[in-house]
Amino acid sequence: MLLLCFARGQADAQESKGASAAKAHLDRAKQMLAADNFPGARTELELSLQADPNLAEAHLSLGMVEYQIGETAQALQHLRRAVELLPDSFDAHYGLAMAQLRDRNVEDGRRELERAREINPRNPDAVYNLGIVLLGQGKAEDAARLFRETRTLGPNRPDVSFYVVYAELERRRFDEARREAEEGAKAFGKDFQWRSGVGRLFVEHGQAREALPHLEEALRLQPDSAEIRRLLATARLELRDPAGALELLAAPATAEDHYLRASALYLERRYREADQESRQALKAQPREPKFMLLEARIAQRTGQHQDALELLDQTIASAPQWPEPYYSQGVSYYLQRRYADARRSLARALELDPYSVRALFLKSACLVNEGKNREAEEVLRRALALEPANARFHYHLGALLLRDNRPDESQREFEEAIRLKPDYAPPHYQLGKLLVRSNQPERAVRELEAAVQHQADLAQGYYQLSRAYSLLGDQEKSAAALAAFDKLKKQEADDNQELMDSLRQEVEAP
Question: By CB neighbour count within 10 A (0-12 exposed, 13-18 middle, 19+ buried), where does 223 fall?
């Protein structure tokens, strides 16, 4: 019995000696960490764990050191052990989460962040990083809430402001994103990284108008930034300002510059020059999908549809998940009157991007040409649900309803198109024509005069105006309007042909 007690005493003394040595190494490691001496701290922490393999604080500290120096596998090993020894430690769970995320283990990283947040709900870093994880998983609503929560837990930071805007854009809450960006600009407007980052977000989410003030300010802050010039040129192209884009790209130096210049020239219908710039871009990067797509679109506009389709096939082979080349395929097929082929391409484009109003509009146009009016109406209404303030869509829906012999519904759509865009001639003309048919010549004259005022070469507007004046008994004005019609066009087009011509003009617009 005495021998057993002596052995236990020796073990306790040895254990105490090991714990003491481990603590000494740990203390020295802390001093080295305070001096940013990571290699020295790592050595001391390894010695600490040799002396006491179950020292939780040493496992945690060594895991964080290895995370800092990029040794993720070793960091994970020690941080997992720290969590086992310290199950209620915020630092252990948070450190393990960050290492797992770096190791691309997103689900486990998310769970560890959630556990860390349970332990310390007021730590802004855990809330912020959980928001980033959820945003990456497509949970933008939850992410936006967490980023706003981060803002309440600590000082206002530019990265948090940036991610609030990002999350709202992902939710397609564009007005809210704009308001957040305006508020952020009050605090971070002189921060080049914040300005350029927010501008890029708006460009990438199709909100070029909102991008402009941020990119313009970023360029003012760093006038030599070629990247910002390109982003700003991209935004101007989205806003159909090719001259502004060309001004920014006066001295093209890269394939991207040539591509953007080609895009601007394409919008200006200077197709030969656009082709030259496009070929410069393709020469540098012959398999770049967006360069091939632009070359295909130039070929479309010059009537080379077979060449365009071959280029589009190559584009799709390089970027099979990109909706744009499928949409452009639809355009070529439509212009060749291959409406069923066009619809197949557009169906794929809409699978990849259900929010593409262009693809919905073109699909509707195909169905109209195939005589499938009710199906065309359904698709066009889907486009209008996405863009309820699009005057052209209301006009085309009115024309479609008129073709389907539904004049009252048609009239409402024309009136809505006029309300949204008073200077848009076609709905004034169509509404005026309806009013002539229903023997309301005074209202008809007002609409038809507005139509020819906004589009002086609208031959059919003058023809209908001559009829309206005649109904009012003003034969002099009627004769003058008819003479203007005769000068512009020799015969009245029927309703079907007017709709077809109008649809084709929309599709052929750059």
Answer: exposed
pLDDT at residue 18 in the model: 58
Distance between CA atoms of residues 372 and 398, nearest Å: 15
Token pair listed for 190? 């002189």
Q: What is the DSSP letter of 88?
A: T
Question: Residue 492 carries which DSSP code?
Answer: P
What domains can be seen in the chain, in order of their start residue? 416-510 (1.25.40.10)
Helix (H, G, I), strand (E, B) or coil at 105: coil
What pLDDT is attached to residue 29? 81
What pLDDT was estimated at residue 499? 53
**C-alpha torsion 189→190→192→193, nearest 10:** -60
- 269: tokens are 């219908």
Contact 444, 476 (CB under 8 A): no
Asked if residues 120 and 126 have their Cβ atoms less than 8 Å apart, the reply is yes
Structure tokens at 77: 């090993």
pTM above threshold 0.85: no
Query: Taking the chain (510 residues) in consecutive chunks of 10 residues, what is each chunk's mean pLDDT?
Result: 39 54 87 90 89 91 92 94 95 96 96 96 96 96 96 92 97 96 96 97 96 97 96 96 95 95 96 96 95 95 92 96 96 94 97 95 94 96 96 95 93 97 95 94 95 92 93 93 84 53 56
Q: How many CA atoms lie within 13 A of 377 on its CB side?
A: 15
* Chain mean position to CA 58: 46
| DSSP assigned state of 491 | S
CB atoms within 10 A of CB 68: 14
> In sequence order, what are the residues at sequence separation of 6 or more whose Cβ sits closer than 8 angstroms to the Cβ of residue 21?
47, 48, 51, 52
Share of residues in the chain with pLDDT > 70 (%):
92
- The label of the residue with tokens 């991610």 reads 163
Contacts 24+ apart (CB under 8 A), 83-88: 83/112, 85/54, 85/56, 85/59, 86/56, 86/60, 88/119
Residue 164 structure tokens: 């609030």
Q: 34 vs 28, 41, 43, 78, 238, CA distance in Å?
A: 10, 9, 15, 20, 51
Amino acid letter at 149?
E
Q: What distances in angstroms separate CA 225 from CA 73, 214, 311, one per listed residue?
A: 39, 14, 33
Dig out the tokens for 7 from the structure: 């052995």
- Closest residue by Cα to residue 327 from 310, 311, 307, 343: 343
**Look-up: residue for tokens 């096939």?**
313
| Per-residue pLDDT reduced to its tens digit, 85-97 | 999 999 999 999 9
Token pair belonging to 59: 């496992």
* Tokens matching residue 253: 């130096």
Q: Comparing C-alpha atoms, which of 296, 294, 302, 217 is closest to residue 263?
A: 294
CB 126 within 8 Å of CB 94: yes
